[in-house]
Write a structure and sequence with these properties.
This protein is of the alpha/beta class and 395 residues long. It contains 11 helices and 15 strands. Strands 1, 2, 3, 4, 5, 13, 14 and 15 form an 8-stranded mixed sheet that branches. It has a 7-stranded parallel sheet with strand order 6-7-8-9-10-11-12. The structure holds zinc ion.
């Protein structure tokens, strides 16, 4: 027997079904509902348990509880539900399997940062073009791309005309210019290589990304060539020529660059880019990165990189909160490149790119690029990825 209250709710539900008619009844209202996760979306200042409904590849709603029908539901109880992660410094364009692998890490948008130059930019663009998620490339100012003997050790390789021609033919996929400036990449040419990269980039109104650290020129001198919207990757690079002096002060030229709108990115990588003591000193000053990035290569899982959620977890021990880390891997990154402007958010109407992460507590070992280990007590793990409203398969 139904009691009075159950009777009324059953009657109301029946009336609602009838009102929608037989045709509407056949199709579920939503394609997917992600149920019961802790939704952290810094773009709308949300951190609360919510259901997220997706229809037609876009976010339809997030509410404390969504009772409407969906073709598919994903149980996210106990997990974090965040906008799809954006990784602005990868080498996904070097490997046909790259985009699919980082998709499993929760990455729904990536930038290949200068794997190739003008001579073979078509190779990275082909991978970006066939990528399941959004992928774009930075053209290396060195026309041969990354070279073991140094991209621009021979200054003639920093070929302005060749880079300009490549960009003009590929404006839909080239989103900036990369200048790698370490002494083993550019040698004494660092300043001139950056000047040429800037000449190319400004003529297309594009940003330059510099790879800093262990340069011959002082970092302050290089900073002076950077304009609003440019990106400095490897901000935690240890001396020589780190962003911090021996007295623990961020260099004035670096502070000035941030004030005029230059972005500072992690670029975890594998060699020379991060060492715990430098990270500790920089974090202590409050000069925190704007974005996280992996500097991903196909061997990432066998190195200290592992995946973007792991790289994000490395700063929890230096005072960064989970929310602050997610901000940097979602909405901050979405502001840097126009092709990402409508990503990094779960706001209603946005493309339904979602990362489902697990925040585990325990003891976790994190590596820098110098075999240094620290133990942290929280780590993010990728759990599932939703791309354009569809749950991505996991291998
Ligand atoms: Zn790189």
């Amino acid at each position: 027997m139904l009691n009075r209250r159950q009777f009324f709710s059953a009657a109301t539900a029946g009336a609602a079904m009838l009102a929608r008619g037989p045709k509407a009844f056949a199709a579920a209202k939503h394609d997917l509902i992600i149920k019961g996760g802790r939704v952290i979306d810094p773009s709308v200042r949300l951190d609360a348990v919510r259901d997220v409904a997706i229809s037609g590849g876009r976010i339809a709603a997030f509410e404390p509880s969504i009772a409407e029908e969906a073709t598919e539901t994903l149980d996210a109880r106990g997990k974090l539900v965040v906008p799809g992660l954006l990784d602005i410094h990868t080498h996904c364009g070097r490997f046909p399997t790259g985009p699919g692998l980082v998709l499993q890490d929760g990455v729904t948008g990536w930038v290949d940062a200068g794997s190739k130059g003008a001579d073979a930019i078509g190779d990275t663009i082909a991978i970006a073009r066939s990528s399941p998620q959004l992928g774009r490339v930075l053209i290396n100012i060195g026309r041969a791309g990354i070279l073991p003997e140094g991209d621009t050790m021979d200054l003639a390789r920093a070929d302005v005309a060749a880079a300009k021609e490549a960009i003009s033919k590929n404006l839909d996929f080239i989103v900036g210019v990369k200048a790698r400036l370490s002494r083993d990449v550019a040698g004494e040419n660092d300043y001139e290589v950056l000047r040429r990269a800037q000449e190319v980039a400004t003529s297309f109104n594009l940003p330059v990304m510099i790879h800093m650290g262990q340069t011959i020129s002082p970092i302050g001198k290089l900073m002076d060539l950077l304009k609003r919207g440019d990106i400095v990757t490897h901000l935690f690079a240890p001396p020589p020529n780190s962003i911090i002096d021996d007295g623990g002060h961020i260099l004035p030229e670096v502070l000035a660059a941030r004030r005029r709108g230059v972005w500072f990115d992690v670029g975890n990588g594998q060699t020379g880019h991060m060492r715990w003591d430098t990270i500790g000193a920089i974090m202590k000053t409050g000069f925190w990165p704007d974005t996280f990035s992996t500097d991903w290569n196909v061997n990432a899982h066998e190195t200290g990189v592992i995946d973007l959620p792991n790289c994000m977890s490395k700063l929890f021990g230096y005072g960064m909160t989970v929310n602050e880390a997610i901000t940097r891997a979602t909405c901050n990154a979405s502001r840097i490149f126009p092709f990402l402007n409508d990503r990094g958010t779960l706001n209603a109407g946005a493309p339904a790119d979602v990362a489902i992460l697990e925040l585990r507590k325990g003891n976790f070992e994190f590596l820098d690029n110098f075999k240094g280990k620290i133990t942290g007590h929280q780590r993010l793990f990728p759990s599932a990825t939703v791309l354009a409203g569809k749950v991505a398969p996991r291998s």
